[in-house]
Amino acid sequence: MHLYGGALQASYLVGGLAARGVESLLVCPFGSALAAEAYPEPVSVFAVPMGGDLDLPFVGRIRRLIKTHHPDLVHLHSRRGADWLGGIGAGLAGVPAILSRRVTNPEPRWVVPIKYRLFDRVIAISRAIAEGMIEAGVPEDKIRLVHSAVPRPDPLAQRRRGELLSEFGLPDNALIVGMAAQFIPRKGYEVLMGAIPQITARYPTARFLLFGQGPLQERIRDRAEREGLSESVRFTGFRKDLASYLGCLDLLVHPALDEGLGIVLLEACAAGIPVVATPVGGVPEVIRDRVNGLLVPAGDAEALAGAVMRLL
């Protein structure tokens, strides 16, 4: 529903196709950020109900759209049921379908031969995802590895550090550590919260900007207040202009417990800031230890604190 990794990549994709003269019909959920984006002329947006894996009527909705507009290809994106339900709809309409898979979570082995028969090709956004699909039984010759990418930062759109300090009420001498992710368990916010007291004990001017929203946000906010960390931690909410602020940070942390690739890691590298992350999923395909960041064991708050302090 928000312009996080997968949705942002879909937005980049239709814009890139439009620049090459390819017409796109973008089907997305009612009320989603994708539906509200401005797109170039060859892109048409269809906002429809999308209720997830059990929304069986979505098959009929996508089939009717295909029959009405006659696309040459249907490109599906995991998940929200758009993958397998969309594959059925494309098959019923007689149009070839490809799937972009962005997550590493395993699927039941009995599902794989049924589900992946729906797609002519499957795009994996990291080697870790590709290897997981092969292990689960997806034919290797059906898989294509296409890493996600982000645009180069626009120098005219980049904020100055003073603007960031003013926007988020930070002191001039602040050491600024950012984290940008949905507030969901696998992103590792609890691990970061466990590391912050050790970091601030050594670096009292360290400030943590948490960019994002999600079901765990209030729980993490309550923990910050309970543990006396409210002065050190700022909850910024979801920021569509995040990329313009990244270059103002001293470093980015990404203590994920699982990750398909990590779009924000690409954005941090493009902005020229170091990253402390975990070697899970596709992360090591972006962050090389002691080259453009540091990798620490997933779930290890003490190791995370040590790496952050080393960079600070």
Describe this structure in words.
The chain has 312 residues and is α/β, with parallel strands linked by helices. The longest helix has 15 residues, at 5-19. It has helices spanning 5-19, 33-36, 57-69, 82-93, 111-115, 127-136, 161-167, 189-202, 217-226, 242-246, 263-271, 301-311, and strands at residues 24-29, 43-48, 74-77, 97-101, 121-124, 143-145, 175-180, 206-211, 233-237, 251-254, 275-277, 293-295. α3 crosses α4 and α8 crosses α12. The strands form three sheets. The protein has a six-stranded parallel beta sheet, with helices on both faces. It has twelve helices and twelve strands.
What pattern of helices and strands is seen along the backbone? HEHEHEHEHEHEHEHEHEHEHEEH
Task: Report the total helices.
Answer: 12
Largest sheet: 6 strands, parallel
The residue-averaged pLDDT reads: 93
* Overall number of strands: 12
**Distance between the ends:** 35 Å
Radius of gyration: 21 Å
* Approximate strand percentage: 15-25%
Strand order of the largest sheet: 9-8-7-10-11-12
Share in helix? 25-40%
The shape, in one word, is globular
What low-confidence regions span 5 or more consecutive residues with pLDDT below 50? none
Query: What class do helices, strands and sheet pairing give?
Result: alpha/beta
